[in-house]
Amino acid sequence: MSAVRSFLNHPYTFWALLCLPAIPMTAALATGDAKTIHMLLHPTGEFAARFMIISMMITPLTMLFRGWRGPRWLMKRRRYLGVAAFGYAAAHTVLYLIDIGVVAYSGNELSKLYIWTGWLALLIFVPLAVTSTDGWLRKLGPHWKMLQRGVYGAAVLTLVHWAALHNWGGVGPALVHFVPLIALELYRVNSNLQHRRLRSAV
Asked: Across all residues in the chain, what is the average pLDDT?
């Protein structure tokens, strides 16, 4: 039993789980079919959003289910989820650039809402991923948390990016993924406000 628990708690086990979606994607790319690049645009983007959403849901879930080990177990691995989200977002961007070519850098393409919101979300992700190590955490100290809060901006941009796809045809799928996060964040904010009121009353 202890061996199983040790295996489940090992960082490489969690990394392996996060890499599972990439296995069929890599296998599909290995076939050499040119259409595969376009077909993988949505899956890579969706997994980037999913891992980001899960990482953001952990704190309110920990507050909501205080006696449950699941959120606490995820809390220790939240940075892994964030790095995985960036990895899939980077893959999504590379595939997009290969698929669309030089058109990606044209003014007409960059002016589209779902394009520039995607680029901004990625730019926010870069420093968050770079500073996700223990070394950066120690180096930045209290400023590390302030920097990591940039994920909220990335989340809003990702929501708009996803929803605005295909003349807002992505609204439904985006809301299905983001509504649980929004509900949990509202719960977290409300819970924190209640605690502050109680402290003020005392």
From this structure: 91
